[in-house]
Amino acid sequence: MGEFLKKYENKYQAIYESSLDAIMLADEHGFIDCNSATLKMFACTTVDEFIGRHPSDYSAPTQVDGRDSRVVADEKIAHAYKNGSNLFTWLHRRANGEIFPAEVQMTLLKLTDGDIIQASVRDITERNKILEENASYIHHLEKLQQVQDVANASPSPDASLHNAIDEIRTIFEADRAWLIYPCDPQVEYLEIPLESCDPQFPGASIKGQKVPIGAQEADLLRNTLATVEPIIVCPMPKDVVTSEDYAVQSQMIMAIKPRHGKPWLLGLHQCTYERYWSA
Asked: Where are the beta strands (DSSP E) in 114-248?
């Protein structure tokens, strides 16, 4: 029986030390042991540096709900002692002060010399990032569907384009949305075939007119064509004509490249305040 227990203990110790997850043991006073993955995760050098502390010492001051980490940690531990386990997300803090989100699995271990808690901690920073990116992607698809629905419901191609630009301005809560054609730094003239404006901030009012293109405008078109991401300007430089003539405080532009014909330039203006645009 003693040999069996010894083999079992050795097996558990091997699993404990080789786990990629941080595993730690705690009693009612604090941590009493941890594996090497714990030291790496919490930026500690030795086991002695990590143990002897309350879990809240390795936590953000408050959790996502705004409650004090010491109070919430004691509640989580009490739940595990009472129910045998507890699974939850947590804001942990490394020894260097870095805060990171984690998934924590607490399990009650009933030992001959007293009950203790085994906690397995997994850093979920990358998982959360993927979830946020997926949510952002779905949000973009939903907004694109809104624009398509509005365009499809329009009675004519001109009305379709006009309604689509109105919908884009509404979705982004911008003060002005506009299209320039062509988005080509080599041409001598540009046209602004369409604008959608808040009544407080009228646009150029030059629909159908040809506007000479200067070196500054050519550079803007060239930079826009060179990237697939929107170009955001905030705050607007004082030497840019639109910043004063049209009360523009922030701008976001991007090239639209149809299968046929030259690219277009889609632009959004925020005039009421300096807006740090985000996707």
From this structure: 114-123, 176-181, 189-197, 210-212, 231-233
With CA atoms as reference, report the closest residue to 23 among 145, 93, 83, 107.
107
- Per-residue model confidence as pLDDT tens digits over 47-57: 999 999 999 99
Which residue in 35, 58, 57 sits closest to 46, CA to CA?
Answer: 35
Cβ atoms within 10 A of the Cβ of 47, count?
17
How does pLDDT run across 185-209, given as a tens digit for each residue? 999 988 888 889 998 988 876 666 7
Region 76-80 average pLDDT: 95
Radius of gyration of the chain from its Cα atoms, rounded to whole angstroms: 30
163-191 CB burial, b ≥16 within 10 A, e <16: bbbbbbbebeebbbbbbbbbbbbeeeebb
Q: For residues 215 and 68, what is the distance between their CA atoms, to the nearest angstrom?
A: 57
Q: Are 35 and 14 in contact (CB under 8 A)?
A: no
